[in-house]
Amino acid sequence: MLVSEVIATRYGGGTVERAGKLASSFADGSRTVRWRKKRETSAMIETAQQYIQRITAHVEGKQPLAVQAATAKKLERLIKGLRMSKLRKRPAADRWSASEIVAHLADAEIVTGFRMRLILGAPGSPIAAYDQDSWVTSGHYEKRDPRKSVEQFRVAREANLALLESLTLEQWKQHGMHSERGQETIEQIVRMTAGHDINHLQQIERILPGK
What we know:
It is a single chain. With about 210 residues, the protein is α+β, with helices and mostly antiparallel strands. It has one domain: Up-down Bundle (Four Helix Bundle (Hemerythrin (Met), subunit A)). It contains eight helices and nine strands. It has helices spanning about 50-55, 65-80, 85, 100-120, 130-140, 145-165, 170, 185-205; strands at about 1-5, 10, 15, 20-25, 35, 45, 125, 175-180, 180-185. The chain is globular and about 45 Å long. The N and C termini lie far apart (about 35 Å). Mean pLDDT is about 85; it is low at about 1-45.
């Protein structure tokens, strides 16, 4: 599946303008290696390609950088004025709370930033996957202050967007080798990250109706 788009989007106080089209292909769409990734809705098994398609479907027709630039403020709006007990309440025993989702986004942004810098410094580098559910437990997400998690997310996201703004067209095409999803370019990571944002924002909206 080919991804081609002109990146020319304004966000915050900065401008990202990249002339030309960025064209790249998702790694081995026929991959049959199955991988387990628990979701906050249910445990499910899907192929790497199915996961990519599901997440990137959220950004069809959207500018991924504009989506990413707007996420921190959306998170702030979603949790504003709500009691800690409500934010930390799980909708079910096996589903993350709004607070845990925000903590996950904050940590995931650190991971994304590291992966992009690893690729840029040494193109073709291996990219390790991680168990997000074990991070929820080992990182004590249930105890984290969601407002501090949003701030952590905002700072990391702004740093990553600033990095992306500085890249050349060729750097957008550089890739790493994800242990589960195969080859991933910087462009693909940006699209995946934007889709990941939307996916979790929608989850929070379902947990906190009326927000």
